[in-house]
Structure formats: C-alpha cells, structure tokens
C-alpha cells in the first residue's frame, strides 16, 4: 500500500473545516437520553449470540496535576485516596457487566485510559486487573493487545515492571513536546532524561509495542523547537507515533484558559510544523496510517492496513476488528452489536448509580440500517483510503450511485481538485487527499453533510478543526 502524502497547502487551507474524528458513526452528538436499559440488554443478547471476541476499556479519570491543553474527562487531585471510592464502584460495574456477557468470549483487546491510570497505586492496579480476570475471559498467554496510557511523571522502572507482570504488553506514552519552554507553558514539565528512562524500562520489560503521543500547535512551539522534538522522538524509536493537532477551545474546556493565546503559533506556522513533521517521519521510515497516526512498517497497524483489516474505534485505529467493546468507568462509551451507550460523565453521578446496584448508562444510540451502511463506507475510507463500490452494493443491496447521489455531488469538487478519484467500481483517495480524509468522509455523513454543502464557518466548535 502506498504511504505517501502529497502536500498542497492551498487545498489544505481550503478544505480544513471543523469535523468529526469518526471514532464512531454516528458520533456521540447523536446519542439520545431515551436509550433504555432494555435497548442495552437486547444488544447484549445479540452480542452473545454472535460469540464475537471482546474489547474492554477502563477509564481512570484522576491526574495529580493539570495539563493546560487537556480536553479529557478528568479529576485533578493530589489526594491519592480520592481514587478509593471510584475504584470500588468501578469493580462493582465489572461484576455487573461481567454477568451480562458469555464468559467463553475471549478478551482480545484491553485498554486503561484516563486521566492517568497509574494514579492508582500498585495494590489498586493489581486488584483491578484481578477483578477483571475474575469476571471476563482474559488471555493469559500474552497474545492479546493489552495496553495502558502512561505519563512519564507518574512512571518508574518498578511500576512499569508491575504493569508487565499484570499482563499489559503495549504502552502509550504521553510526551507532547520535548522543549522546556513549551512544557512550562502547558504545565507539563518532564525532562528528556525522564522520558528516556521510562522508554528504557519499557524496552527492558519487553513490551510488545510503544506508542508516543505528540501535540503540534502548543504555545511557544516554533518550526525549530518542533523539529528537535520530532528528531528526539525518532531517536527513541517508538513503534507508533500519534501527532495530534491542539484544539484551543477554552469556551468548552475551562482549563485551556490558562494558556496565553498570544503564544499560540499562527495557522500558517501550524501547517508548516505539520508539513515538516510529516517529512521527518516519512524520512525516518514511518508509514502514514491516517489522520494523525504513523507506525513502523512492521507494526501490526501497518500490517492490518496493508491487509485491508484495519478498523477504527473509540481508541482510534485498531487491529482488533469484529469485537464488541465494553467500556467501564465514568464517561466511557461502549460499542455492543449495533448500539453505542455512554456512562455518566459526572464522577459522583456515576458512583451513585453503581452504589445503588444499577449501571450508570446515561445515553446511547441504536444504529439504523442506513447508519450501518454509512458507517461501513466511512470506516473503509478512513482506514484504507479506498472504497470497493461493488462490495458495498452486494452487501447492502443498493445501487451506489443512486443511493449516494447527494454524497457524490459533494465529492465532485474534491475530485476536480485531485483529492480523490471516483470510478464506477471504486472511490480512491489520492496522496493529495489523505490528510483531508475527515472532510472526504463528511460527504457520506448524513448528520454533517451540511457542513460541506453550506460552508459552515470554522468558528463552529462542535468538532475540532480537521488540521
């Protein structure tokens, strides 16, 4: 598979609007509060009948200090005991969810996110993993994809060895930027020596894979400082790199008001930083997966994409397609059969529900047949930059050109600009169009097509900017 990106600054500026990341379709904005427990139980019943393997996600919302750029659902506290009541109710949720699913279904993917999962101490992490293994069928042969997000400031050789012993085999390490001035501006100070020490411990404990998260567009970032950050990251040789665009939305995320807007790089500089970063990563041998993800050619993500098996879920690009995802903890979103459902975002409300012996589901969505069709199309494009029209017609019993006439009309201008090629049997995204795949996908999004057809202003903050 070609992994090239052709940079066209004029087209990028023209097509960079606000749009979904498509970790689900429909997106969470469409979730409804009238989604009932009966809807959820019906989905679980269909899920058990399918015997599909499972993915588990656990949200640990606690952080010791606040990073000013953060848009995650989190609780900032230095009091480690704040985690005790939450952990108690999380384990109650594990029991309740575990009773719903057939225990013969293997958990092939597991992820702890946050917040900072290692805010929990060693005994709490051990207890949580053992509780999970008691109620779900975890693999014990190290063949599952079991990952955890790490903050270098909350990691040590001992804690990393503990995580490996608990069964984790992949690490996602939050680095963001190596420049001391940038780190200070976003209140996330961590030395290069600290990060290198954590990476060494990860290698020493023979984790299967290391992913590193970086952010471009942070205050005080320049072309030169970011060039050095990418250079240092490449030197650490992670298997995967996520290069996220900082979305400055202080009206939605109050902590971002701590950032001095005058220190943010201009839109032009941000694009230059992105272009330079892509060139550095390509020259270092990283393959562009899509959106903001890069990986070594031998990494399972690349292999899955090359084999046409790459999927997308609430954690981003994934090798574990064909699973149902059970998400636990406040704000977490499950995908079970053809439904999504989300727990309460408020930690107190979440705990109150579980304390009363009831699940904390706050809203959800049951996909229609049309949603499933459009999800398939969007997933194929965002994962593989290509769509086999004949396969879609056979699977869903439609005439593609008729069914998607409005979508194809929206794509004609993009085709004329060289972002994609539309043929009778296939839609193929070009190297020039890959960075704009979210815009392309919006043409098939019945809930967001108006953002293309009506030229919705980019000040709209329902979604972040595409680039």
TrEMBL record:
Top enzyme class: oxidoreductase
GO molecular function, one term: coproporphyrinogen oxidase activity
Gene Ontology BP term (one): protoporphyrinogen IX biosynthetic process
Coiled-coil segments on the chain, per record: none
Keywords: 4Fe-4S, Cytoplasm, Iron, Iron-sulfur, Metal-binding, Oxidoreductase, Porphyrin biosynthesis, S-adenosyl-L-methionine
GO cellular component, one term: cytoplasm
The protein's annotated pathway: Porphyrin-containing compound metabolism; protoporphyrin-IX biosynthesis; protoporphyrinogen-IX from coproporphyrinogen-III (AdoMet route): step 1/1
UniProt binding sites for S-adenosyl-L-methionine 1: 57, 114, 149, 333
Record-annotated Radical SAM core domain positions: 48-284
Keyword Cytoplasm: yes
Annotated residues for binding of S-adenosyl-L-methionine 2: 69-71, 115-116, 176, 188, 213, 247
Localization (cell): Cytoplasm
InterPro entries tied to this protein: Coprogen_oxidase_HemN, Coproporphyrinogen-III_oxidase, Elp3/MiaA/NifB-like_rSAM, HemN_C, rSAM, rSAM_sf
Complex formation: Monomer.
Protein name: Coproporphyrinogen-III oxidase
């Amino acid at each position: 598979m070609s992994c090239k990106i052709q940079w066209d600054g004029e087209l990028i500026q023209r097509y960079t609007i606000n749009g979904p990341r498509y970790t689900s379709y429909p997106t969470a904005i469409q979730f409804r509060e009238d989604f009932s427990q009966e809807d959820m139980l019906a989905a679980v019943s269909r899920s058990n009948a399918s015997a599909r393997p499972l993915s588990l996600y656990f949200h640990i919302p606690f952080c010791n200090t606040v990073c000013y750029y953060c848009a995650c659902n989190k609780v900032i506290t230095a009091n480690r005991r704040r985690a005790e009541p939450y952990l108690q109710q999380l384990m109650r949720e594990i029991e309740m969810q575990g009773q719903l699913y057939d225990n013969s279904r293997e958990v092939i993917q597991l992820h702890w996110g946050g917040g900072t999962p290692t805010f929990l101490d060693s005994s709490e992490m051990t207890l949580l993993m053992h509780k999970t293994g008691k109620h779900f069928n975890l693999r014990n042969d190290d063949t599952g994809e079991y990952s955890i997000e790490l903050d270098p400031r909350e990691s040590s050789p001992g804690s990393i060895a503990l995580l490996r012993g608990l069964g984790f085999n992949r690490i996602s390490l939050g680095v963001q930027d190596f420049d001391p001035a940038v780190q200070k501006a976003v209140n996330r100070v961590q030395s290069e020596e600290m990060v290198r020490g954590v990476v060494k411990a990860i290698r020493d404990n023979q984790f299967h894979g290391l992913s590193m998260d970086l952010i471009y567009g942070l205050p005080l970032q320049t072309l030169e400082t970011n060039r050095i950050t990418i250079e240092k990251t490449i030197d650490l040789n992670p298997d995967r790199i996520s290069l996220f665009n900082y979305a400055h939305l202080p009206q939605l995320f109050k902590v971002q008001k701590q950032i001095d807007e005058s220190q943010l790089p201009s839109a032009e500089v941000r694009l230059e930083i992105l272009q330079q970063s892509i060139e550095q990563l390509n020259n270092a041998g990283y393959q562009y997966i899509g959106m903001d993800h890069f990986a070594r050619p031998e990494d399972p993500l690349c292999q899955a994409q090359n084999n046409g098996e790459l999927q997308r879920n609430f954690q981003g690009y994934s090798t574990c397609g064909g699973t149902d995802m059970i998400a636990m903890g406040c704000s977490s979103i499950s995908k079970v059969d053809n439904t999504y459902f989300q727990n309460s975002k408020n930690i107190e409300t979440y705990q109150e529900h579980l304390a009363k012996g009831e699940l904390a589901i706050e809203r959800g969505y049951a996909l229609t047949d049309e949603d499933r069709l459009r999800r398939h199309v969007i997933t194929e494009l965002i994962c593989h930059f290509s769509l086999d029209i004949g396969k879609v017609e056979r699977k869903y019993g439609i005439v593609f050109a008729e069914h998607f006439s409005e979508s194809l009309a929206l794509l004609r201008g993009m085709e004329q600009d060289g972002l994609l090629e539309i043929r009778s049997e296939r839609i193929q995204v070009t190297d020039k169009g890959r960075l704009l795949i979210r815009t392309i996908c919006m043409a098939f999004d019945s809930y967001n097509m108006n953002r293309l057809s009506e030229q919705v202003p980019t000040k709209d903050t329902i979604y972040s900017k595409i680039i």
